[in-house]
Amino acid sequence: MSKKKKPEMVSIRFRIDQDLLDRIDQIAGERGRQKYIYDAVVWRLDEELPPVMYDLIQDVDDLKARVEHLESSQGTSVQLSELNDAARNDLCADELDRKLLAYFIRNEGATTPELARDLLGNSNKRRTVLARIERLNNRAVTLFGSPVLEYKKGFVKNKRGAWWLTGLEYIIV
User: Are residues 94 and 148 in the same domain?
Assistant: First the structure.
C-alpha cells in the first residue's frame, strides 16, 4: 500500500498583538502555537463555509464548465451540419475553414482578432485567420462567382472593421 500524500503546506507571516500571542501561548503552549492557530483558522472557515458546501460549489463550477464546453461543441456541430455539400467539400479546404464558416453562420460577423481567439485560442493569430478568409473568398469566387465574406470598415452592428457573411445562400442547405 502507498502512504497517503499529505497536503502541501504553505508558510505565511502575519502580525498580531503581543497580548494576543501571550494568550495563545497560555492555552497552547509555546510549541503548540502553530497548531492552535491552524485549528482556529480551519474552525472559522468550516463555520463560514462548511466543507460539504465548498465541495458542492466546486462541483457546480465544474459542471458549468462542462456544460459550456458541450454547448459550444454542439453549437458548432449544428452549424457544420447546415453547410451544403459544395461548401463542406469544395469551398472548405479543411476543418478550420468549416469552423470559420460555422462561426459566421452563428454570429454573422466578426473581427479577425475575435476569430483568432475563438477558433485558434490566441488573438495574435489574426493574420492566419485573414489568410484563410482570403483563400475562402478566392475559392468562392471560382465556385459561385462571388465571395461569401465581405469586409466592412465602419461600424456595423456594434463591430468596427469586421468581416460579414454575405453569401449565405451559397453555403447552407
Answer: yes
